[in-house]
Each structure stands twice: as C-alpha cells, then as structure tokens.
Amino acid sequence: MDERRWWLMPVEYVKGVGPRRAQLLREEVSVFTAGDLLMYFPYRHLDRTRIDLAATLQEGQPFAQLRGRISDIRLVERGPHRRLSATLTDHTGSVELTWFQGIRYIRKSLIAGAEYLVFGRLMKLGRHFSIAHPEMERISGGTESRRVGLVPLYTTTEKMKKAGLDSRAIEDIMRQLMENIPFTFSETLSEDILSEYKLCSRHHALCQIHFPSSEAELKKALFRLKFEELFFLRLQLLQLNLGRKRENPGLEVPRTNRLVKEFYQHHLPFPLTGAQIRVLREIREDMASGRQMSRLLQGDVGSGKTIVALLSMLSVVDAGFQAAMMAPTEILAQQHYYAISDYLKPLRVPVALLTGSTPRNQRQDILTSLRDGRLPIVVGTHALLEEDVKFRNLALAVIDEQHRFGVAQRGKMWQKNVVPPHVLIMTATPIPRTLALTIYGDLDVSVLDELPPGRKPVITRLLLPSQHSQLLHLVQGELAKGRQVYWVFPLIEESEKLDYTPLLKGYEQVKKSFPQWSVEMLHGRMNQAEKEQAMQRFARGEAQILVATTVIEVGVNVPNASVMVIEHAERFGLAQLHQLRGRVGRGAEQSYCILLASPNISAEGRARLQVMVSTQDGFRIAEEDLRLRGAGDLEGTRQSGNMRFRLADLSKDVHVLQQADRAARQVLEGDPFLVSPLHEPIKSTLNSLKKSESFWRQIA
Ligand code: ADP
Ligand code: MG
Q1: In the predicted model, is pLDDT for residue 135 greater than 50?
Q2: 316, 286 contact by CB (below 8 A)
C-alpha cells in the first residue's frame, strides 16, 4: 500500500480496531482514518524507564515500578470492606499490592511465585509502601517487557473507557499501527531547513512522539512537529500578505502635503514623539507605494495613536481622497469625532460623525456627501459598514481598537471601494509577539513603543476590603485637589442576563461617601443620549466621580482624572485592567489605580493582580496574561477564530514560532512561488493543506 492510500484507510481496518472500536474512535475523538490515528498524539508520557528497588523507595515519590515475585495472595475482610492483598518481593525487600475492586477476577489471574513487572501510584501505609490497583505484567523467560520506557498516555473519554478503549488499549493499537507501516513517511520540509534548524526527519518524529526511545528523542520529535505546524501557518500568512500586495494595486497616495504641512507647522499641539514620526513615515511610504497597505499599529494606551491616525487621514485628503475612521463603541466614535473636528477646525476640513443613533435626515446628508465626495473624512461605528454607505473615493480606513471587530468586518471595509482602500488597524491591547504573528500574521506591523514625555507612572495598589479607609482618604485628597475619579464595577453575567446590582449599589454607596461631590453613572443599558450626557458632564468637569462599568474601558480620554478605582478587580482580565488603568495618568499629575480585591480572593488571583502592581508595560502584561490563561482565552483572540494547534502552545512555544517564522521568510524571500525543486515537499504539503479545509478554516 502506498503512503497516500494508507493515510486515508478507514480506521476500522487498522489491526486491533474493528468496527465497534472504530465507531467509538470516530464518534468520541474524530479519528476516522489510519492517518488520523497516527496523528492522535499522546498528551504526555509516563516515565517507566526506571525499575525501582523495594528497599530504596522514597516517600513522596509519585509512581513506582518494581520487578519481583508475588506471594501471600490473601483476602482481607474488615467489616463490610474487602480487599485483596499480595506481596511483591525483589532482592532488596517487598511492597504490598492491594485491590478493592474486581477482586474475584484478579485473584484468579494472579500466579503466586511468578515474576511480574508492576507499576502504579505509590502510597505509604504505616511503615509499609503499597500500590493500589497496580498495572501488572507477567514476565516469563527473562524477556524484557516492552512497557519499560516512556509510556504514552492518550486522552480517552468516559464512553471509550467503559468499552475498554482506554489509554492502554490505544497504546496497543498504536503499536500495531506503527509496526506495520510499509514505508517511510514522506518529508514535508526541505533539506536546507531540516539541516539549518536541526530538525529530525518527519518519519522519525512521528514514530518517536508515540514511542520515544529517550527523553531527548521525544523532545526532538516534539520540536520538529511543532515547528512544522507553525511553519506552515506562517508560510500561508506570509503568502497571503505577499499575494495581496501583488494583486491589490492600492491607491497611490502621493505625498503632496499641503494640509499635512499646514497642520504640522501651525496647529500641531505638541512635538511628536520619535515613535510617532517613524510610524507616520511607515504609513505614508506604504500608501505611496502603489500597493495596498494592511498595517497593524500597536501602541500601548496613551501612546498617541489618534494624532497618527489624523495625520494619515490628512495625507489622503491632501491627495484628493476620502478617509474613514471606525471605532467599536458610540462613546469612542464620538470622542474621536470631537478630537478630530477640533484638530481640523483651523484647516476647514469637514468631518462628520455617523453612528447607529445619527438622526435620519442627518444620515441622509452624510451619505450623499460621502457619495459625491464633498465630505472628505467620516468618523463612526460599524454603522459605517452598512450597505448604503458608499464613498466616492475612499483611500484609507482606520479601524480603532481592532480587537472588538471580527476579521469579517475588516474584509467588509475593503469592499467599500473598487480598489480596496488602505487599512490601518490600531490596537491598544498589546499583543504578545506570538499572537501578533498568528492572528494578525497577514498584516504589516508598526509599533508605537514610546510614550509622550512627562508621563508619570500610575501608582497602582492592591487593597483588601479591610483597607477601605485608605481608599476613601486617597480619593478625598485627590478630589480636594480638583482631580476626578473613575469608579468601576464589574457586570455580573448570569445566564445571559447582565446583573447591574453591584453597579447600582456601588453608585449609592459612592454618593453617600462623597456627599459634597457630584457623581455620574455610566453603563451600557442607558440610552445613547443619557450616556453622552453623563460622559460629557464628566469630561467637562461638572461631575467629579464617574461610576461606570467597562464601557469606559477603551480609549476614553479625560486628562484631569487621576484616580481609577476598580471594585472586584479579580473579576477582570489583565488586558482589561490595563485598559482601565490607561484612563488615568493622561495629564501631568500623579495618578493612582486602586485594585480592590474581594476578601476571599485566591492566591492565584492575587498573583495575577500583582502583575498589575509590578509593571505598566502593556506588552509584559499581555505576555503574562497569555502565560496565565493560555491562548484560547485571551481577550481579543476569541473573535479571531480559535487558534487550535495539535501540539504547539502559543503561550509556551515562542521560540519555536520565531524559528518557524524565520524559516518561512527565508523560503519565500528566495523563492516566493516555491518553484525550486528543493522546495517541492513544502509546495505539495501546502497544496494538500489548502485542500483540507478544516485546517484553513482556523486562519482564514
Ligand atoms: P491612544 O494611543 O491611547 O489612543 P491618544 O491618542 O488618546 O492615545 O493620546 C493620549 C493623550 O496623549 C492625548 O491627550 C494626546 O493629546 C496626548 N499626546 C499624543 N501624542 C503626544 C505627544 N507627542 N506629546 C504630548 N502629548 C501627546
Ligand atoms: Mg485611542
């Protein structure tokens, strides 16, 4: 049988499987073919390389494996409890073996005086070591057991176990499978990559991952297979990027510069940071290149993305095109709108705000002037994506806080023009490098890695309810200095209904604690006008305290606010806390972030919050978040489609990803269409991967 046919052979024809087990494998773990079975990797291995001696067993040692003879098989009855016991003796001493279930069967099968290899969890009862329900294997004629070594453990479901298809059974089937493979698995990577990255062959890796001959070989196999997984992902994303650049000509935005210059010379409110200047150059070069820009702008909270967006939009308008800026919430869209229309006033460049609550006739006007090109800049929410919003010549779409938008929405924006507009995605949620490479891997990336000068770090403290008076004291002091305070409460989600009680109660409590100050409330259930009013009153300084849910999380800018209080801080993700903290420390004053923990907070929860206290570096927080929660759970990744890898773990395999990325770049740099015979294995693997839809659905 050739390799391709073997790979697709229905699993029931694998020796030791048969129709009944095949059905279980299909239904319970989606293993349909011999290939699927081979790719059903163990989740870990049990180290059974060592044979312990009875005399040298250590207390606290989790497992033990001994070799010896069985004697003294006896039934012990104590009241209603029965157990079967036997003694295993090697040349140094003995341990007790016990069984509480299946007694009759086991008693019949044990042979006193015979030699066994015994493995199991070690317990100490009184002075004696014992192993309950050990795995037993009879050794006869001095033959070495196959099960001495690194034993694979496979995931099985309850249903499989009940039918006898446990890890051990899968191991046996797998052994059969591996022993009967009539060929060498073909290679998917090219010779040069194998040697440069010191990768073992695919055949070796696939054998060793199930039945490794040593810990070192297992490591090599894992590295090779993770590398392969990530290499093909990167290769595909890089190809997507290159392909888009080749195929989408993109509108040429020449650097004519009238408005940009005027703004720059006369109306710029502050000197740009070095990072802002660098990023602007990257964006403008991209847009002038004649190819479509798809760029991700990563900049921590407060790094000054808005002005970068504004100047990018101005260069587009300079060239006679239109620009749109999309934000995830009404509040944010409004805020951008106010900031941008302020900036633009002296230049006499019109700008409009388009959201779900824009009045009908106003909306009509905006749509008309977008269509005939009189309106050069529009700011809005996803209302911009609606069918009837058409542009005369949209050249740039800025998407703020991308993690709230799905990939599909990104695509919709591209269809707003015959030639797809340039796309600038801005995110304030710093993304660990691994995720940037995998989720946004088809984009070019710019990083604002410098904060505007004069920012004082926000003093962050973790307080328990018993320290409440400290909090009141601090808030009182800041209010007296004329500063403002955010006070955030979590929303509690109960069976799809959001519970606003903590917020409402908190609001009353805060009002009572600070009777001489004006307190506003802001939450998602208020209507648009109410929200706007509350926000405006706070922004204008008419209210000193804003009690809110996380609607204020992203982007809101009130520089006079100097305290952020977060109740039940343990209920928020690190990325969210980082965003919330970013609402303060925007002025020249010293700011504070107070994390209030519940009295019964776990040690782990406390450690998580401690990360916030110890650093303000959004990238470090993001890395930590990823490490603590794993990739699947990270905010911002959920909508992006689940990144599921068979082996690779984005929170741990950074170094593998980096090497795989480098290799993929090397390959495409020298041979973008993979025409070299050297790259034949890569090309054909890529083709078959593209055919197996399930894989690509994850990244498309
Ligand atoms: P974000 O990147 O979080 O969107 P913003 O664009 O809202 O940040 O900027 C945060 C604050 O910093 C704003 O008040 C803005 O006016 C100010 N700012 C931006 N760039 C600079 C700069 N180069 N120098 C001083 N202040 C700046
Ligand atoms: Mg912003």
Answers
A1: yes
A2: no
Domain 459-615 has CATH 3.40.50.300: yes
**HSE toward the beta carbon, residue 342, CA cutoff 13 A:** 10
Instruction: Please return the burial class of 607, using the count of CB atoms within 10 Å of its CB with bins 0-12, 13-18 and 19+.
Output: exposed
Atom of ligand 1 nearest to the CA of 303: 2
Q: What is the mean pLDDT of the chain?
A: 86
Tell whether the model's pLDDT for residue 640 goes beyond 60.
no
- Which residues, other chains included, contact 77 with Cβ-Cβ below 8 Å and sequence gap of 6+? none
Check if the beta carbon of residue 500 is closer than 8 Å to that of residue 525. Answer: yes
Q: How many CB atoms lie within 10 A of CB 327?
A: 27
Sequence ranges of the domains in the chain = 3-44+179-187, 50-148, 202-247+653-691, 258-448, 459-615
pLDDT digits (tens, 9 = 90+) for 274-301: 999 999 999 999 999 888 888 989 888 7
Please state which of the four CATH numbers 3.40.640.10, 1.10.3300.10, 3.40.50.300, 3.30.950.10 is assigned to the domain occupying 258-448. 3.40.50.300
Angle (CA) 689 692 693, round 5°? 115
Grade residue 697 by pLDDT with cuts at 50, 70 and 90: very low
**309-355 per-position pLDDT tens digit:** 999 999 999 999 999 999 988 888 988 999 999 999 999 999 999 99
Structure tokens at 470: 């400290």
Q: Ligand 1: which of 276, 298, 306 to mutate, most ligand atoms within 8 Å of CB?
A: 306
Mean pLDDT of 643-664: 83
- Spell out the residues 6+ positions from residue 591 whose beta carbon is closer than 8 angstroms to its own: 456, 458, 459, 561, 562, 563, 564, 584, 585
Counting from 1 in the atom list of ligand 1, the atom nearest the Cα of 582 is: 3
Residue to substitute in 270, 447, 589 for testing ligand 1 pocket (most ligand atoms within 8 angstroms of CB): 270
Kindly give, in sequence order, each residue whose CB lies less than 8 Å from that of residue 200, ignoring residues fewer than 6 positions away.
Answer: 208, 220, 221, 224
Report the predicted TM-score, pTM, of the whole model to 2 decimal places.
0.65
| pLDDT tens readout for residues 465-514 | 889 899 999 999 999 999 999 999 988 665 556 677 788 899 999 999 99
Produce one character per residue of 402-432: b if its CB has 16 or more CB atoms within 10 Å, e if not. bbbbeeebbebbbebbeebbbbbbbbbbbbb
What architecture (CATH level 2) is domain 50-148?
Beta Barrel (2.40)
Domains 50-148 and 459-615 share a fold: no
The CA 587 to ligand 2 mean position distance, Å, reads 15
- The residue nearest atom 17 of ligand 1, judged by CA position, is 304
Q: Which of 543, 296, 269 is nearest to 427 (CA)?
A: 296
The single residue listed with the structure tokens 């229309």 is 341
Around ligand 1, the residues with Cβ closer than 6 Å are 270, 272-273, 276, 299, 301-307, 428, 452, 555, 557, 559, 586
Q: Is the pLDDT of residue 130 over 70?
A: yes
Tokens of 126: 């009184």
Pick the closest to residue 608 from 597, 592, 619 (CA basis).
Answer: 597
